Amino acid sequence: MATPSVRSRSGPAPLVVESISEQLYTILCERITTGVYAPGSRMDPQAIAKEFGVSRTPVRDTLVRLEHDRLVETRPRSGTFVTRPSRQDVHEVCQLRKGLEWLATGVAARAMPLEQITDLREEAVAALRAAERGDYEPFFASDTRIHREIITRTDNSRLIAARESVEPFVYWLRVLGATGPHRLAGSTRRHLEILDAMAARDIEAAQEAAALHLAEVEEWTLADMASHDIVT
Q1: Strand order in the sheet with 72-75
Q2: How many Å apart are CA 174 and CA 191, to the nearest integer?
Q3: Fewest CB within 10 angstroms: 23, 43, 52, 149, which?
Q4: What is the mean predicted confidence (pLDDT) over 140-149?
Q5: Is 15 helix (H, G, I), strand (E, B) or coil?
Q6: What is the spatial distance between Cα 112 and Cα 98, in angstroms, rounded to a whole number?
Q7: SS3 55
């Protein structure tokens, strides 16, 4: 029996993926992490079920998964709400990333082909130029790719899974934070330092730059979110 698809009332085409719950998770996760659902806003299970023409069960399963990802929270006798990230959330995510990516950068500095490093570097430079013109999407894509390919180079399935478990939250924090030139330029500078050290096979320098980068990301994210009255 074929799995029925979820149809959004805002779009004409049905979506075809593994299951209704998987489809709902993808859609609602994207809405949260791109800011369609603002931090603190209420998630109405009945309205979600009605919008997509599904029962309450897959909606409930999806909200449980989003709560596991720390993207929503359930308050007794109040309902489910999009999380308002706390300073502790930002610290924990960045601390986890620092530990995982420090290790992964050391592995990548030994094993990543020079051609791949060069390609990542050229993309990072081009993304910064685009950001200077007001187009931030190439930077987000480059940033995601650099960190993902460094992690993937470890060929450690558990490490990769641990990093992927916080990916939605990482993307969300990036969107919630400001996209000011100071942050993009600073991140690009660290990216280039990491990649140049990797190209030189300087493991210590690459790991040091990676650790410093994540420390700066935490500092900048907290400052950006506080300026938008988001972080608690």
Answers
A1: 42-43, 79-82, 72-75
A2: 16
A3: 149
A4: 93
A5: strand
A6: 19
A7: coil
